[in-house]
Specification:
The chain is of the alpha/beta class. The protein contains 3 helices and 6 strands.
Length: 142
């Protein structure tokens, strides 16, 4: 039986590796989570700490960059922003992306500015398992 919370990501999945690396880099335990929204609906989030003070979405796509990768990034940014605004206003929101998906966040891209202004930290997962922040939320100390 898979470890509780990991049923979405197998032991060798890139998403699992990314979430574990992000947790190690931040010194917190992150796990996939299903959140009860209180009205009978549920939301799956790719990572959160026990208290939901850090909410994470993962975009682990590799290979040639495609419009679907950009769409996943935008959907995850929306999901994180809405979840924080509607349910966890004090939470830190983090989008962890692969090198392929990071192409959405060039210095001149509107998506970079939007992530910063919306308070989304964007972290890049490197193939060696390290994490770097490529977009710092507005007002965050570096």
């Amino acid at each position: 039986m898979p470890e509780r919370g990991w049923r979405r990501f197998g032991p060798e999945s890139i998403e699992r590796a990314m979430l574990l690396a992000l947790g190690r880099a931040r010194g917190i335990e992150l796990r996939p989570k299903s959140i009860d929204l209180g009205d009978g609906s549920r939301l799956e989030i790719e990572g959160a700490d026990e208290e939901n003070t850090v909410l994470v979405q993962i975009v682990g796509n590799t290979g040639t960059f495609r419009s679907q990768h950009r769409n996943k990034v935008m959907a995850d940014m929306f999901k994180l922003t809405w979840l924080r605004g509607a349910y966890f206003p004090q939470s830190r929101i983090v989008l962890c992306v692969s090198e392929t998906a990071a192409q959405v966040f060039t210095p001149a891209a509107w998506s970079t500015r939007a992530a910063r202004d919306l308070g989304i930290e964007v972290c890049l997962y490197h193939t060696d398992g390290t994490i770097t922040t490529i977009v710092h939320p507005a007002g965050a100390t570096r």
